[in-house]
Amino acid sequence: MVRAILIEGLVIGALIIMDGIYVVVFPPFGDEVQGYGIILIGIFIILAAYRLNRMAEKCEEDPEKA
Fold first, then answer.
1. What are the tens digits of pLDDT across the range 17-49?
2. Domain count, the chain
3. Out of 43, 45, 57, 59, which could bridge 13 as a Cys pair, Cβ 3.0 to 4.6 Å?
4. Range of 30's domain?
């Protein structure tokens, strides 16, 4: 279950980053700021999924520390 959350987060984050790159590169021009914001959101989703995975693994190793 925990691995599934990490994989889903990585896939969704990668798709969002690709969408942000599409917004930055292709016309109409002037949407670069929104594209960079979308890219940052994708990076945040990847980092959040990774952090959630690490916390869940830590809880599985030692449930008393949770």
1. 999 999 999 878 888 899 999 999 999 999 999
2. 1
3. 45
4. 2-65
